[in-house]
């Protein structure tokens, strides 16, 4: 099986680029962030503190995730409910970042993620795919951009959806999430030693896509 690992901070354009490339290559797209988001959503709905490791761990036996991967798309069901869209909310993203720091949560998802990669050619997107989940991935990409560039893009996305947002708040959220994701004790966000670094700060979506595709094709050919 061929596996493409794409890691990087939030807002670097990973998911839209990864989905498109998976569809073009005919690979299964696995969005691991959505799994952490579903656990974050469940914790919020249960009225528990997402930063409380013991409280979140106690909820895990009640959580059943059904990942329905597809080419360039992934559906996620939380105890039978399709939460694919619900988990995209900003507040769920922050809850995901909180719960993802707990070792019990990471252990809970690890086997699911590895099993998906054992079944088909995958393009898996996350924070620790190249370092922990698939250390033997065929190709590893670390896709990043400066916090300022990511905040500008995120702001444009929110405005396009008609949601009220301002640059300073979006930038502060991005910095906070980066800080949490890079400084946690377990599986922190970092570039694997053998990953190719792609920085999209100064280039647009099309150029980023062309660069990603070229890099991946060079490795899987
Ligand atoms: O990629 P995303 O924004 O959907 O991810 C949401 C959060 O989940 C992110 O802040 C960190 C966490 N996450 C993780 O710890 N490991 C992954 N492989 C994917 C996401």
Strand line-up in the sheet with most strands: 5-4-3-2-6-1-7-8
Please trace the helix and strand order, writing H or E for each element. Answer: EHEHHEEEHHEHEHHEH
Shape: globular
Q: What's the number of helices? A: 9
What ligand species are in this complex? 2'-deoxycytidine-5'-monophosphate
The radius of gyration computed from the alpha-carbon positions, rounded to a whole number of angstroms, is 16 Å
Major sheet details: 8 strands, mixed
Number of strands: 8
Question: Approximately what portion of the residues adopt beta-strand conformation?
Answer: 15-25%
Helix content: 40-55%
Query: What's the mean pLDDT score?
Result: 95
* Terminus-to-terminus distance: 13 Å
Structural class: alpha/beta
Structure write-up:
This protein is of the alpha/beta class and 221 residues long. The protein is built from 9 helices and 8 strands. It has helices at residues 14-25, 32-45, 53-59, 90-99, 103-119, 129-133, 147-160, 167-183, 205-220, and strands spanning 3-7, 28-31, 65-71, 73-78, 81-82, 122-126, 139-144, 196-199. The protein has an 8-stranded mixed beta sheet with strand order 5-4-3-2-6-1-7-8, with helices on both faces. The longest helix has 17 residues, at 103-119. The radius of gyration is 16 Å and the shape is globular. Residues 10, 32-33, 36-37, 93, 96-97, 100, 126-129, 177, 181 line the site of 2'-deoxycytidine-5'-monophosphate. 2'-deoxycytidine-5'-monophosphate (DC) is lined by residues 10, 32-33, 36-37, 93, 96-97, 100, 126-129, 177, 181.
């Amino acid at each position: 099986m061929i596996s493409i690992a794409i890691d990087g901070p939030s807002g670097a354009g990973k998911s839209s680029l990864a989905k498109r490339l998976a569809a073009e290559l005919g690979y299964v797209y696995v969005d691991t962030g959505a799994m952490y988001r579903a656990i974050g959503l469940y914790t919020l709905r249960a009225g528990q503190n997402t930063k409380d490791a013991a409280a979140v761990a106690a909820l895990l036996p009640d959580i059943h995730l059904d990942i329905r991967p597809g080419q360039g798309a992934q559906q996620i069901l939380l105890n039978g409910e399709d939460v694919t869209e619900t988990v995209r909310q900003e507040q769920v993203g922050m809850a995901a970042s909180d719960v993802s720091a707990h070792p019990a949560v990471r252990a809970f998802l690890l086997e699911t993620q590895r099993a998906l990669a054992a079944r088909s050619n995958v393009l898996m997107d996350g924070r620790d795919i190249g370092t922990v989940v698939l250390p033997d991935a065929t190709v590893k990409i670390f896709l990043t951009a400066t916090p300022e560039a990511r905040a500008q893009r995120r702001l444009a996305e929110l405005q396009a959806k008609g949601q009220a947002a301002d640059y300073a708040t979006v930038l502060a959220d991005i910095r906070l999430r980066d800080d949490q994701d890079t400084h946690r004790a377990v599986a922190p966000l970092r570039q694997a030693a053998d990953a190719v670094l792609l920085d999209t700060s100064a280039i647009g979506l099309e150029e980023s896509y062309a660069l990603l595709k070229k890099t991946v094709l060079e490795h899987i050919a």
